[in-house]
Amino acid sequence: MEKGYRKWIALTAMSLGTFMGLLDVTVVNVALPTMARHFNETFTNLQWVLNIYTLVLAVSLLILSKIGDMYGRKKIFLASIIVFIVASAINGIAPNPIVLDIGRAFQAVGGAGMNSLAMALVASNFSGARRGLALGILGSVIGMSTASGPLIGGYLVENFGWSSIFFVNVPVGIITIILTIIYVNETPSYGANQKIDLLGMILSAATLFSLIYGLIQKEGHTTWQWTNLNVLAWLIAAVVLLVLFIYTERHVKQPMIDLRMFKSVHLIGTLIIALGLGTAIYSFNAFLTVLMQNYIGYSALQTGVRQLTISIWSLILGPVTGVLGARFSKRKMIGFSLFLGGIGFLMFMNAMTVHLSFSNMWPAMILMGITNGMVNPLLNTAGMEGVPPQEMGMASGLINVFRQIGTTIGVVGLGLVQDNRYEDYLNVHLHQIANLPSGLVTTLKKALVDAGPFAGHGIAFSKRMAATPFAHDFQRVVLSAYSQSMKGIALSSAIVLFVAGIAALTLMRDQKSSDFNE
């Protein structure tokens, strides 16, 4: 392998690709209100601008990981960047939401290739202690990209308009292509002479699509029960397709995924942690953004600046974890960092009051940020240890898939916790408001429940409501209901991180040998 500065420029290229691909998961959030006005569409109708990216990204990760392993990761990484750039440009000039949704789908394909193959390319371009440091830096980029979406998106939208969040990808992408071509070493085409497991790829994509789409359906229709066929049918399909996928992979000569990988207890522990990190940390960003913007009243840019309290730790700790990981037990550092994040969520739960401000939240947010900044880089490094070269792309893809699935599960699961707590509080306390006519209780409760906790503040503090004699008490009840719902989210997230921490300590291994044969 080449020595010197070339490796670090190669790492820069991989980091830029990863940053762009993951940033576009969250950066659109803050632009949706502006886009809704531009297209004269409702926020709900534009929700698929977010959902289509999440869905296609998850579906594409494993497929592109395998293709990269087979035919050369650098080639597929470059092709993914080109797709991403072209799709970004189309999104920026999209004349209507349909074109935007199609562009976002292709953008997600490119993002999936960049995210899944960057980690494997770094692992194959570096060796020894430098590999741990490089993967640590890449891990910090992963943490920063997801968490900094509101800040970057807020700045771009406020100063250059919504299309700028897409156009900015074009020059950055071109720079990434140039750096990749010149400085990144190609990996061998491990499966160039093998037959593509087309059926396995189709089944894996269908499984992930059914799971994610079912969860998205539940997220978009909070009043639906899990037994509603529009939700249940997709989840049952995911289980059936998963069984078919496993059966197929066990019987084909050259499977998409070598199922012997899952005999590694260490890998299982790594995937559980990736799932937990997505469920608790990454999904929480959506709820935190709404809290800061809708309830405290910060602008998108002000919200992003304050969320640096979480995201900045990825930048600070990423390189440090590479050094620490070479000297100390990654298993223990990951486990105790997850416990620290759990404590942070408990602190956040305790801080939640009707008169909440940033000064109440920042100590808890610091602990969450330290957890993200420590665990993500260490998880990437630990996940690659002992993995044969020909499986590195797939291992990277699995970690990314479980992190993405965890984020989706978190948005849905924590959203349900929030909705239930919110509605329970309203059921008890709306009846106790003085001067509120009994006939209005049911009407107002239905309006609040149908709108959801995100929109409750807008209803409670509307001009029409302010003119009523019961406005103050009604507003206090809505704020208290929201506060209780956020406490439920924080407690649930804490439990997830404590469980993930236990998994790290009990399932992960401090080793550098493979648990399965090449």
Automatic annotation (TrEMBL):
Signal peptide start-end: none
GO cellular component: plasma membrane
Residues covered by the Major facilitator superfamily (MFS) profile domain: 10-512
SUPFAM superfamilies: MFS general substrate transporter
One of the Pfam families matching this protein, by short name: MFS_1
Transmembrane segments: 7-28, 48-64, 76-94, 106-126, 133-156, 162-184, 196-216, 228-247, 267-288, 308-326, 338-358, 489-508
Alphabetized PROSITE patterns for the sequence: MFS
Protein name as annotated: DHA2 family efflux MFS transporter permease subunit
Species this protein is from: Secundilactobacillus folii
